[in-house]
Design brief:
heterodimer; A: 304 residues; Beta Polymerase, domain 2; five-stranded mixed sheet; two-stranded antiparallel ribbon; 11 strands; disordered N terminus; B: 468 residues; mainly alpha; 20 helices; 10% strand; EC 7.1.1.- (chain B); quinone binding (chain B); quinone (chain B); NADH_Q_OxRdtase_suD (chain B)
Chain lengths: 304, 468
């Protein structure tokens, strides 16, 4: 990350001020925090993805593994402290056994007894260094009960991620865009990630924000349970997030409350299921050539 | 839709009756339930414009909703525009996308990290190297090998990216020109682009969908005579690029179609997430190559192009000027590549670097004989290593990374998430076409329908990238 250049600051600041005029008009649409969605199409939770693909697709080894891993992860999490649901230093992704992705056969390699806990980068503690502290301090200063809003801050590989609670996301986004010390006036992208093993917070929405004024980039991450996949929309603040949120809804079933028209965008309107979720099969058929047959990708061995 | 309640398909009619179809199959009868609100529907079958125009004139209703696309020559592939018009003015415009959605991101989750390149290169098919670079930079950041990438690999990446910028801008100008009837711009645009693709083919083996940039470096070094081809190309471009300026810059017809069309100021660009030439046409010099350099862009001498009119004409001029800047960068790359002849193009870590080496065999492609001899005849360990790395792949430490690059169309970023496995846990691409296309209504509403074509072309959306 390169630091801000003074030459650009003056211009970008005034430009950003212009941007506010335009985007500020949509204030009326700002969602009430924790609002219940009205009129949005409900996420197709009842619709199983498999029913569309029909053809009695055999359960892939990948998804079996995922199910096993989930169970194992849950055990690990239960083994930890009770408060681990909101405040835990590491985020256990899964536990890996063996080395070669083979299950159910004899241990011919000698590596079958290996067991590794795989966890996400741990939360950091201030000071984070450089402008990260400025941004973090400003964010905490703007929110009265910041420790409840910012669950944790992860600094990893030169990128900073703020894990925030969903109820305050819309307010926080507005602060991030409008505060003269933050000025994250550009929302690059919204993307979803599905962690089936992260019990109670399976669906993550990831926002990449760019401050052109200060030339800084941060990431916001909001986690919601699969059973209640509602996140306030940031479209009133960042109109450019419109299609990104629609895509995330389309692919993951995350419902963005307050979005002006949350409909599917890439898949057909009547498509059942949300394709990018981990429990949605990739699909595919065997490919035969000269008598030999190659299984579809989601049924090949996974080494993960 | 309510239209299905009437017409030939209602009441269990299974057979399609062409006679009825010509007569307007989806017409809702007068006062027939909710279908009546939809208005009169014409089904255009070609060569029947006079009938339709007469019909509509009789009706005396000037408000028409036109479905432009998804199969329309001037919508850049399978983009569907839904235009509500009063006469010839567009009062409301919306995009329908998704026709080219192929689930590339989902597929990447079922392939190794290296194979992921083969998928993401197919997203925005006019700038494949941008996706490859963004994805690989993300993977390299997670692997924490960003500072181990050999200089020569980075230089090759920059050279390919800039050649790609030229070829992509050429297609933009060519198709944009074709859509307004400037057919010469189209023919010369594709002529020049083919020269660039020839160089791509010589270096990567493929005209498009290269999968050439890999995590850790590039797939292989430049072939014998590769640099000479690049030099020839630069010379050719220096000779022929002025033609675009000569044809278009002051051409009154061209300017008449482009000037003042599809305006979007800086505030609009920031709000709607628009980057690339449309953003720079507002006069703001936002270019990630300068602002957040990657692949060593900070060491190259080039200028960011801006313009003072945020319209289709400004974007056109920026693209032409950017091609010149790209040529400057390519020349600097050529000089550096001559200096680094023989240096590695892949990270030294053998647990990441792709083991196979390619060579041109009698059939035009194939594995290097030396490498095959080594793994098959000399070293069992080398064979195991080759086999494991190719079938299983390498593991990437858990975490997430987002490394944006300046693609020809704007900010392209790959959000790469790893769970410590041999496959991407999630790879999401922030495609500039996707974001820029959101601005279509802002560009088009209130203008003539003919300007819609120009405005959309000035955004240069590539549906492969939009739909992924």
């Amino acid at each position: 990350m390169s630091g801000p250049t003074n030459a650009d600051n003056a211009k970008a600041t005034s430009d950003a001020a212009q941007a506010e005029k335009v985007t500020g008009e949509s204030d009326a649409n700002a969602p009430v925090k924790g609002a219940v969605p009205e009129g949005e199409s409900a996420p197709d939770r009842g619709t199983e993805a498999g029913s569309k693909t029909g053809s009695a697709t055999p359960v892939s080894t990948a998804s079996t593994d995922a199910a096993e891993d989930r169970a194992e992860t849950e055990q690990v999490e239960q083994g930890e402290t009770a408060v681990a649901t909101t405040q835990r230093d590491t985020e256990v992704l899964r536990v890996q056994h063996g080395m070669f992705g083979v299950k159910g056969s004899g241990d011919t390699s000698g590596y079958g007894g290996l067991s590794r806990v795989i966890d996400f980068p741990a939360a950091g503690q201030p000071p984070y260094g450089g402008w990260w502290d400025e941004v973090h301090e400003r964010m905490t200063a703007l929110s009265p009960n910041s420790s409840d809003i910012i669950e944790k801050v992860v600094v990893h590989r030169g990128e900073i991620t703020f894990h925030v609670v969903r109820s305050q996301l819309a307010t926080l986004a507005r602060h991030l865009r409008d505060d003269p010390h933050l000025r994250f006036e550009f929302c690059s992208s919204v993307s979803g990630v599905h962690y089936p093993g992260d019990a109670g917070r399976e669906l993550h929405a990831v926002y990449h924000l760019q401050s052109m004024t200060y030339n800084r980039r941060i990431r916001l991450e909001v986690s919601v349970p699969d059973a209640d996949p509602h996140i306030p929309s940031v479209v009133p603040t960042y109109p450019g997030a419109d299609w990104h949120e629609r895509e995330t809804y389309d692919m993951f079933g995350i419902v963005f409350d307050g979005h002006p028209a949350l409909t599917r965008i890439l898949m057909p309107d009547d498509w059942p299921g949300h394709p990018q979720r981990k429990d949605y099969p990739l699909g595919g058929i065997d490919v035969e050539y000269h008598g030999a047959s190659v299984p579809p990708p989601d049924q090949r061995r996974t080494y993960s | 839709m309510s239209a299905t309640t009437t017409g030939p398909f209602a009441e269990g009619k299974a057979q399609f009756d062409p006679a009825e179809a010509v007569e307007d199959p989806f017409q809702a009868g007068p006062g027939e339930g909710p279908g009546a609100a939809e208005g009169h529907v014409y089904t255009v079958t070609g060569q029947d414009w006079d009938t339709i125009a007469d019909d509509q004139a009789e009706r005396g209703d000037e408000r028409i909703v036109v479905n432009m696309g998804p199969q329309h020559p001037s919508t850049h592939g399978v983009l569907r525009l839904i235009l509500e018009m009063e006469g010839e003015s567009v009062t409301e415009a919306r995009c329908g996308i998704g026709y080219l959605h192929t689930g590339i991101e989902k597929n990447m989750e079922f392939r190794s990290w290296t194979q992921g390149v083969t998928f993401c290169t197919r997203m925005d098919y006019l700038s494949p190297f941008s996706q490859e670079t963004s994805y690989c930079l993300g993977v390299e950041r997670l692997l924490d090998i960003e500072d181990q990438i050999p200089e020569r690999a980075s230089v090759i990446r920059v050279m390919m990216l800039e050649l790609n910028r030229i070829s992509s801008h050429l297609v933009c100008l060519a198709t944009g020109g074709m859509e307004i009837g400037a057919l010469t711009v189209m023919t010369i645009g594709f002529r020049e682009r083919e020269m660039v693709l020839d160089v791509f083919e010589a270096i990567t083996g493929l005209r498009m969908n290269h999968a050439y940039i890999r995590p850790g470096g590039v797939a292989q070094d430049l072939p014998q005579g590769g640099l000479a081809k690049v030099k020839d190309l630069v010379a050719w471009m220096r000779k022929h690029l002025p033609e675009y300026a000569a044809f278009c810059n002051e051409n009154p017809i061209f300017k008449g179609r482009l000037v003042g069309v599809g305006e979007l100021d800086l505030a609009g660009c920031l709000a709607l997430g628009v980057t690339g030439p449309p953003l720079r046409a507002t006069g703001y010099d936002w270019d990630l190559r300068k602002k957040q350099p990657y692949c060593g862009y900070e060491t190259y001498d080039f200028d960011v192009q801006t313009w003072d009119t945020p319209d289709a004409y400004g974007r056109f001029r920026i693209r032409v000027n950017e091609m010149w800047e790209s040529l400057k960068i390519v020349e600097q790359c050529v000089e550096r590549l001559e200096r680094t002849e023989g240096q590695p193009v892949m990270v030294a870590d053998n647990k990441i670097a792709w083991p196979a080496q390619l060579a041109v065999g009698s059939d035009g492609m194939g594995n290097s004989n030396e490498h095959i001899r080594h793994i098959m005849g000399q070293s069992m360990e080398a064979l195991i290593h080759h086999f494991k790395l190719v079938t299983e792949g390498f593991r990437v430490p858990p975490g997430q990374a987002y490394v944006p690059v300046e693609s020809p169309r704007g900010e392209l970023g790959a959000h790469v998430v790893s769970d410590g496995g041999t496959r991407p846990f999630r790879a999401h691409f922030r495609d500039p076409s996707f974001s820029n296309l959101q601005a279509m209504p802002a560009l088009c509403e209130g203008s003539m329908v003919s300007d819609v074509v120009v405005a959309v072309a000035s955004l240069d959306p590539v549906m492969g990238g939009v739909d992924r």
